[in-house]
Amino acid sequence: MTAWRVPVERPARVAGAAAFDLDNEAAYRIWRRAKLADVPASIDALRVEVRDAAELRATERDALLARCARFNMAIYHGATACESSSLPCALGAQLGLRRLDANWLADEDGVSPITVRDSAAPGAGFIPYTNRAIKWHCDGYYHPPGRAIRGMVLHCVRPAASGGANHLLDHELAYIGLRDANPAHIAALMSDDAMTIPARDDEDGVARPAQSGPVFSVAADGALQMRYTARTRSIAWKDDAATRAAVGCLEGLLAGGSPYVLRVRLDAGMGLVANNVLHDREAFIDDPARPRLLYRARYLDRVAPAAA
Fold first, then answer.
1. How far is residue 211's CA from residue 198's CA, in Å, rounded to a whole number?
2. C-beta neighbour count of 222 within 10 angstroms
3. Can you tell me whether residue 71 is helix, strand or coil?
4. pLDDT at 295
5. According to the model, what pLDDT value does residue 4 have?
6. Which letter, b or e, does each residue of 157-195 get, where b requires 16 or more Cβ atoms within 10 Å of its Cβ?
């Protein structure tokens, strides 16, 4: 696989769909050079200390926005521990995240409490609500293109007694790794039928229809989007050699082939704000008296300055 060399020069970042057009190698090279000249050396590059995440100071807000613009994610810390699910929405609104995507396992406010659920509780069989590891994915990979999850806030109220850390990878860096290895990988993963999530049935019939779509796509604003899960069950990849090769290359990057994977274990009051980057979760062990609890808010918006 081609090595990812970081140039010394730092040209202006190219924005827009041109950089992701396989027929526009010049635009890609300019964007790639700028992107690789400004990658986070460690998780510390993502950190922003905040006084109160629900009411950011202007400098704190600007720092979070700047990191999301550069790295597609930021970690806030130092916030007063807050056990209210209102915090992710209050924080998100200050960062341009307004169109909340609620799901059937979220609370009435549309925010999902991520904790181990009793076996009789709704959603108890879904991996996020267990203490098991979660493989690499982008949130909402089972959604149709018109409902793509573009931004998210993950706020930690209580960490596990041990384990539960997340690995993170900017999806733009994954794109570079694949395109540098072979542009045909990108062509295959941009196909409208590259990845299909089969229908999910419940006792009332079809709870969610089958959903096909690309892994990589470019939004109307020119930003790169990714839709992916490393699950091997409840997923069907397009059955051709090009797609199999592309998926294999991506799996290799996520298994240790990318030097840009970061690891973080969120503590109480810490959180992740991101443009739906690739992430996973390690298995964990709970303290029965203080079980792990995170609040997750998912949005149809990217992190951006809020409209006046």
1. 7
2. 13
3. helix
4. 95
5. 31
6. bbbbeebbbbebbbbbbbbbbbbbbbebbbbbbbbeebb
DSSP class of 117: P
Give phi and psi for 209, each to the nearest 5. -70, 165
DSSP string, 137-195: E-TTTTS-GGG---EEEEEEEE--SEE--EEEE-HHHHHHHHHHH-HHHHHHHTSTTSE
Residue type, 22: L
Give bridge partners of residue 225 from the DSSP assignment: 217
**Helix locations, the chain, DSSP H:** 25-36, 58-71, 86-94, 171-181, 183-189, 241-252
Question: Residues with Cβ < 8 Å from 275, sequence gap 6 or more?
Answer: 68, 72, 73, 150, 151, 171, 223, 302, 303
Burial call 12-47: b when 16+ CB within 10 Å, e when fewer: eebeeebbbeeeeeebbebbbbbbbeebbeeeeebb
Q: What is the pLDDT of residues 116-140, one digit of tens each?
A: 987 656 565 678 889 999 999 999 9
Instruction: Determine contact, residues 31/14, Cβ cutoff 8 Å.
Output: yes
Predicted local confidence at residue 95, as pLDDT: 97
Cut 0.70: pTM above it = yes
Residues 6+ apart with CB under 8 A from 307: 96
Rounded to an integer, the average pLDDT of 213-232 is: 95
Q: For residue range 232-248, list pLDDT tens digits in order.
A: 888 899 999 999 999 99
Residue 54 zone, left/alpha/beta (φ > 0; ψ -120 to 50; rest): alpha
What the chain holds in terms of domains, given with CATH numbers, is 31-299 (3.60.130.10)
What is the rounded CA–CA span in Å between residue 251 and residue 268?
Answer: 32
pLDDT of residue 81: 67
* Phi/psi of residue 283, nearest 5 degrees: -60, 160
